[in-house]
Design a protein that fits this description.
Blueprint: H1 2-27, E1 37-43, H2 44-52, H3 59-67, E2 74-81, E3 88-90, E4 97-98, E5 103-107, E6 113-116, E7 121-123, E8 129-131, E9 136-137, E10 153-154, E11 159-162, E12 165-169, E13 172-174, E14 181-182, E15 187-189, E16 195-196, E17 202-203, E18 205-207, H4 213-252
Antiparallel strand pairs: 1-2, 3-18, 4-17, 5-6, 5-9, 5-13, 6-15, 7-8, 10-11, 11-12, 13-16, 14-15
Length: 253
């Protein structure tokens, strides 16, 4: 019975976390360049072990002693970012850029470097190429890009030209997924340098969120049902435990 209570509680905790993740995915279904988060399945025994390790004795020892080894199938152990590309949407905007691969390198006003696939760019009052939030888009040398007032063209390799004259080349870098940490709805950070690549830039396009609303809503409904089922199970097990404790007390009397 103790094993059942622990299993139900852990399932409730996981379902609660999963609902938050799915809700965030749904809320960003229209966010340019957004990458959804997905659940990573793991066997329950592995999850149990990972949850025991950081807990100091004697609690961890008591959990191991009371709960023991449980085989209850798979469980959502953690969440990871799905870096699959989103659909390209034609805008015709001069400084709307979409990437086939990699990430734009941008510099926030406070100097921090982030990476994004949100290519909604424009000129600031000084003519610098900036994101919709005011961060500076960087060139291959890590410098800010200053644009003329004339219309510019951006090649697939990131080379910016005006009247046929080269101005700068936009920096596009790629990373192994484990090297990136989410730092906002469509921004990521990394403690390690990325690899400069030809990102296959398309001018006049933006990359939509890779969130699939139908899939997210269906999964959210399933997770909510799982939460309710385990909530009911936990309540019943708790009632049974109370009944058993009462009966043991009567026998002792």
């Amino acid at each position: 019975m103790i094993k059942g209570i622990y299993t139900a509680f852990t399932a409730l905790e996981g379902a609660w976390r999963y609902q938050d993740v799915l809700s965030n995915n749904i809320a960003n279904a229209t966010t340019t360049g957004f990458k959804r988060e997905i659940g990573v399945r793991q066997s329950f025994s592995d999850v149990l072990l990972s949850q025991q390790v950081p807990v100091p004795a004697p609690l961890s020892a008591r959990i191991q002693q009371v709960v023991g080894q449980i085989g209850t199938g798979s469980f959502i152990a953690e969440f990871s970012t799905d870096f699959a590309g989103g659909a390209f949407q034609s805008t015709g905007g001069e400084l709307d850029l979409a990437l086939g691969a990699g990430f734009f390198a941008i510099e926030a006003p406070d100097g921090q470097i982030f990476y994004t696939r949100d290519g909604r760019f424009g000129r600031d009052t000084n003519g610098d190429l900036v994101t919709s939030s005011g961060s500076y888009v960087l060139d291959v040398d890590g410098a800010r890009i200053n644009l003329p007032h004339d219309r510019v063209s951006v090649g697939a390799d990131g080379l910016i030209t005006a009247d046929g004259e080269p101005i700068a080349t936009i920096q596009v870098v790629d990373f192994a997924p484990t090297m990136l940490t989410r730092a906002g709805e469509a921004h990521f950070s990394s403690t390690q340098p990325g690899e400069l690549i030809d990102g296959g830039i398309r001018q006049g396009y933006l990359e939509a969120s890779n969130t699939n609303l139908v899939e997210e809503l269906t999964t959210l409904l399933a997770v909510q049902r799982t939460f309710q089922a385990n909530q009911t199970l936990l309540a019943r097990l708790d009632g049974t435990l109370d009944l058993a404790a009462g009966q043991i007390g009567q026998l002792g009397g």
